[in-house]
Design a protein that fits this description.
By secondary structure, the protein is an alpha/beta fold. The protein has 21 helices and twelve strands. It has a six-stranded mixed β-sheet, sandwiched between helices. Strand 1 and strand 2 form a beta hairpin. The longest helix has 52 residues. It is elongated and about 120 Å long. It starts with 12 loop residues before the first helix and ends with a helix.
């Protein structure tokens, strides 16, 4: 259970930013309205202190207390409160609209990522555990949602508010504005240093979280093996090691946040206020400052409003870095080469299959198929036999296009499969694997895979053809019986029958049975063999066989050894040849007799 796969994103920050903007602009109408709300809210928020300054300078310190003055003060106070309410309303609207836009953007992003992995080549999933892929679609996209909602609000809204405050300060008194402006470079340098340190830590945190998800997925799926072989302590120790590394990196992040957080902001804000009070307050007490109490009040108020968004930005720096790392991981996944989907319907082909001098390797340095040439005509049953690693399943992987072959040619009805998209030539192919996989749903949905072209009647006929109706009729809901993930409530033989019925319901021109009877009892195997005798007519059937007794009636038997076809013929011909097949068959007979 190695976790050594490199997970550090290799995509550039500018590419990440471009893609994030692309998804945000999908909801540009909502974003535009939110921006208008933001501007109105900020304007209302900045106007309120100006009214307060007017009340202080024109009425409170004038000493006038007539009813007319009090009425005017109340009107101004009412306007002040009104602006606060307006500011609060539009701030709420802005946050709500940004939240809606962010959620919609993330919904589309998740959909795009999921659609992308559906078209990824099988070899990609060989190199990256399922838990890591799940982590990118769930945890990482959720981090991006946080980027849009919290970070965007704090950075964009905070940036606009800071600029607005500075403009207001320059309009009121450039001397105070200069004091505030001097703090901006300090904040910029501080944020830049923080990002430089935090990025590496966050990359490690996201990778370790992905490792945790991968191990959880692997451990839950393999729990019977873990417990049967008493591997609980070893598995727990491995999880503890990853969890400890995750904790240590989180602690590093906490130390960084604590060292560069609120305390520095408090110091800067208090220094700014001290400078204002010392310079302007001292001149005011001497009677020649040229500044009023109201203006002093608004300067203090604006100082607080200038640092408030900075505090919001600083509080989200950690989240921003984590979200950017997550964004890079998601977009790196989406940048992986995939297969273009085709929805074009192609006529059902006859099913004549030919391999012409095909060379195939998962790793180019170690070929597993060498100069494979074979021909299977419509209606024939071709069996592939050989010891483990001889290349049986590799032939089927190449035919299905799960992996690319390096040289040679594979044709269906004389047409090279390279000239069609994989979805087009797979339309009329079916497969039954050794380990039958069932999806959560019902028996009926597992047979039809919710394909509108496969009616309920067709589902029932397929189940009847493979002999599955005997056990299905005993179920309370029949073909509507719920199926748990992986079909855990059914026996191995029952799951295989359902998988076989699924392939038949799609009426493939080419049917592949990849050791489909290897894990099935003799009685169930007999049911499948009986169904095959009826249903193989009109379709080309490839059987990867473990039990040689099940392929005696095959039209062709190809014997493979180390990626080469060393014998070919029917059962009688190969037995008369007295070669490798004869030897394997006799060994199995003696094993059964023993």
């Amino acid at each position: 259970m190695s976790r050594d796969i490199q997970e550090t994103p290799q995509i550039e920050n500018r590419v990440v930013a471009k893609k994030l903007i692309h998804y945000a602009l999908k909801e540009k109408k909502i974003m535009l309205v939110a921006f208008v709300f933001l501007v109105i809210g900020i304007v209302a928020e900045l106007l309120a202190p100006l009214i307060l300054m007017r009340i202080i300078d024109n009425y409170i310190f004038t000493g006038a207390s007539t009813d007319e003055v009090m009425a005017t003060v109340l009107r101004w106070a009412g306007l002040y409160l009104g602006l606060i309410v307006v500011s609060a309303f539009f701030a709420y609207g802005q946050r709500y609209l940004l939240g809606v836009a962010s959620n919609k953007a993330i919904k589309q992003m998740r959909q795009d990522v999921f659609a992308h992995i559906q078209t990824m080549p099988i070899k990609y999933f060989d190199s990256l555990p399922a838990g890591k892929i799940v982590s990118r679609i769930t945890n990482d996209t959720e981090a991006i949602r946080n980027l849009y909602i919290n970070v965007l609000i704090n950075f964009v809204a905070g940036g606009i508010q800071m600029i607005s405050v500075l403009i207001a300060l320059y309009v009121l008194d450039f001397r105070f504005a200069l004091i505030a402006t001097m703090l901006v470079p300090i904040l910029f340098v501080w944020i830049t240093l923080y990002r430089r340190i935090a990025t590496g830590i966050n990359e490690r945190i996201r990778a370790l979280l992905s490792d945790i998800n991968a191990m959880l997925n692997e451990s839950i799926s393999g729990m019977p093996i873990i417990q049967a072989f008493r591997q609980e302590p070893k598995t727990e120790a491995e999880f503890k090691k990853i969890n400890e590394a995750y904790y240590n990196n989180q602690r590093k992040m906490l130390r960084l946040d604590a060292a560069t957080g609120w305390n520095i902001l408090d110091v800067l804000q208090n220094l700014a206020l001290a400078a204002i009070i010392w310079f302007f307050g001292g001149q005011f007490l001497q009677g020649h400052a040229g500044i009023s109490i109201g203006l002093m009040t608004i300067f203090v108020d604006y100082t607080s409003r200038l640092f408030r968004p900075v505090m919001g930005i600083v509080s989200q720096l950690s989240s921003m870095e984590a979200s950017l790392v997550s964004s890079a991981r998601v977009f790196e996944l989406m940048a992986e080469e995939n297969e273009v989907l085709s929805v074009r319907e192609v006529p059902r082909y006859a099913g004549n299959v030919a391999f012409e001098n095909v060379q195939f390797a998962y790793d180019e340095a170690n070929p597993v198929l060498k100069d494979i040439t074979l021909s299977a005509k419509c209606g024939e049953t071709v069996a592939l036999v050989g010891h483990t690693g001889s290349g049986k399943s590799s032939i089927m992987s190449a035919l299905f296009g799960f992996y690319p072959y390096q040289s040679g040619r594979i044709t269906i009805d004389g047409n090279a499969i390279d000239d069609l998209s994989k979805q087009e030539y797979r339309q009329h192919m079916g497969i039954v694997l050794q380990d039958a996989y069932l999806f959560a749903g019902t028996i009926a949905s597992n047979i039809s895979l919710d394909n509108a072209k496969i009616s309920r009647i067709k589902v029932e006929k397929a189940l009847e053809a493979v002999g599955a109706t005997d056990f299905i009729n005993k179920l309370p809901l029949g073909i509507d019986e719920p199926v748990l993930e992986k079909g855990s409530t059914f026996s191995t033989g029952e799951r295989q029958l359902l998988s076989f019925a699924r392939a038949l319901a799609f009426d493939p021109a080419i049917l592949i049975l990849d050791e489909a009877t290897a894990n099935i009892d003799t009685e169930t195997e007999g049911i499948i063999q009986k169904a095959l005798e009826v249903l193989k007519k009109g379709r080309t059937t490839f059987v990867i066989a473990h039990r040689l007794s099940t392929i005696r009636n095959a039209d062709q038997i190809l014997v493979l050894d180390r990626g080469e076809i060393i014998e070919r013929g029917n059962h009688e011909e190969l037995m008369d040849l007295a070669g490798k097949y004869h030897q394997m068959y006799q060994l199995q007979l003696r094993g059964q007799g023993g």
